[in-house]
Amino acid sequence: MDPVRNPFAPGAGQRPPELAGRDKELGAFDVVLERVARGRPERSLVLTGLRGVGKTVLLGELRSMAVKRGWGAGKIEARPEAGLRRPLSAALHRAIRDLAVRHRAPDRVESVLGVLKAFALRANPDDAKLRDRWQPGIDVPAAQGRADSGDIEIDLVELFTEVAELAQDVGTGVALLIDEMQDVPPDDISALCAACHELSQSGAPLVVVGAGLPHLPAVLSASKSYSERLFRYVRIDRLSREDADRAVLAPVEREEAGIAEEALDALFDASGGYPYFIQAYGKAAWDAAPADPITPLDVAVAAPEADAELAVGFFGSRYERATPAEREYLRSMAELTDGKDAGVNTAQVAEQLGRKPSSLSPARDSLIKKGLVYSAERGQIAFTVPHFGRFLLGRED
């Protein structure tokens, strides 16, 4: 079949040709937008799930929904060991520009931009030389005495209030979307929760939408106990068989091609219903098919090629970040779960390796920080990447 017409799109954060199985989440966010537009109180939103389930894609879709409603919207990706001020400043600058198009008072917009610049400049160390100081690229003078105290919690509340009031001026709202939210530094995540709490009490039209790994709720709860009530948590999981079939059939049929029912069975077995894998195996099956329709044999021929590509780009790139001690820990997890996507007791890992649990804590904690494993509950550990155990057992080290 013509590879130029191949509709499948495996890629990090790349929107699939058919966004199947997410109607519930999209509908819920539409309700949030409408409630805020009517001045109703609404909680911020947190999406959690394993890698490859489409959290980043969904965040992008939610941002598009907000923009279509006339909201200001900005999106960032948190990074370990990186503060929140600089990326947050860039995201809110984008949101303010969205609002400025509709605002009739340029002086008011410039006033808020001045507060944003004051907030952003506090990202510079106090002892930084002038030539080394970062400039946020906001072409107005920095405000004085607003969002510039250096206390991230105080400054975030003041900044969010200013931006929300600007949105209120034009009868709309602001959406701040944060990907990889579990990587926000502890002090910043605490400040973010506090700011959301303050704004929710005042009914300000600013909504934070976070996305992260399954242990993100535990990270937020450790930061602020009230975070359990502050956010609405939505678990993003693999697709059902019906939705997985739709993710394959819809783009294939739009290209006026076909796929056998048995081939759909084979694709679902190979992908496990995970959106990223559906795209990877679907693309390989299309390219391998000599003629229309795609058959089970085409899927069987394509699977090793898709596996090889995933082994390098999806699994291998993560595995290479692990140290030898961490790889030993990961291998033990894979053996204990027989390569399945299941959690394992940390005491079992220690027993398997013939070590004391305390001696393995550094490796486990480092793997958590690198985003390779997560601990949803005390004493349990699991892979953040679907099929990672299967990949490890298939490696020839």
UniProtKB/TrEMBL annotation:
<feature type="region of interest" description="Disordered">
    <location>
        <begin position="1"/>
        <end position="20"/>
    </location>
</feature>
<feature type="domain" description="Cytochrome c">
    <location>
        <begin position="168"/>
        <end position="334"/>
    </location>
</feature>
<keyword id="KW-0349">Heme</keyword>
<dbReference type="InterPro" id="IPR009056">
    <property type="entry name" value="Cyt_c-like_dom"/>
</dbReference>
<dbReference type="InterPro" id="IPR036388">
    <property type="entry name" value="WH-like_DNA-bd_sf"/>
</dbReference>
<dbReference type="GO" id="GO:0020037">
    <property type="term" value="F:heme binding"/>
</dbReference>
<dbReference type="GO" id="GO:0009055">
    <property type="term" value="F:electron transfer activity"/>
</dbReference>
<dbReference type="InterPro" id="IPR041664">
    <property type="entry name" value="AAA_16"/>
</dbReference>
<dbReference type="Pfam" id="PF13191">
    <property type="entry name" value="AAA_16"/>
</dbReference>
<dbReference type="InterPro" id="IPR027417">
    <property type="entry name" value="P-loop_NTPase"/>
</dbReference>
<protein>
    <recommendedName>
        <fullName>Cytochrome c domain-containing protein</fullName>
    </recommendedName>
</protein>
<keyword id="KW-0479">Metal-binding</keyword>
<keyword id="KW-0408">Iron</keyword>
<dbReference type="GO" id="GO:0046872">
    <property type="term" value="F:metal ion binding"/>
</dbReference>
